[in-house]
Amino acid sequence: MKLWAPNTVVRVAIENVGFRQAYTAVTFLIEWSIAMRKLGDGMKVEDFAEWWAVSRSQSFRRQVVYRRAFPGWDSPTDLVKALGLNVKDTEEGFRLLLDRPMVSA
Question: What is this structure's pTM?
Answer without folding.
Answer: 0.88
